[in-house]
Design brief:
With about 60 residues, the protein is mainly α. The chain has helices spanning about 10-15, 20-30, 35-60. It has a domain at about 35-64. Helix content is about 65%, strand content about 0%. It is elongated, with a radius of gyration of 15 Å.
């Protein structure tokens, strides 16, 4: 089994939420981890989710 095939079960979780299809292929199938456009997309989405999660957690803990 190829190493990239081991990452296929993660495709349904990562592609719609964090990475476009092209970037998933770049990172996990071709192992090109320094693809700058894909890194920008990943960083932007991860920070966005982090900001939303932090604000939700702040609202939850602020009400205590």
């Amino acid at each position: 089994m190829a190493a990239g095939a081991a990452m296929e079960p993660l495709r349904p979780w990562l592609v719609p939420f964090l990475l476009p299809e092209h970037c998933f292929d770049q990172f996990f199938l071709r192992f090109q981890l320094l693809d700058v456009p894909c890194l920008k997309i990943l960083l932007s989405k991860a920070l966005g989710y982090g900001i939303v999660a932090g604000s939700v957690l702040g609202e939850i803990l602020g009400g205590i």
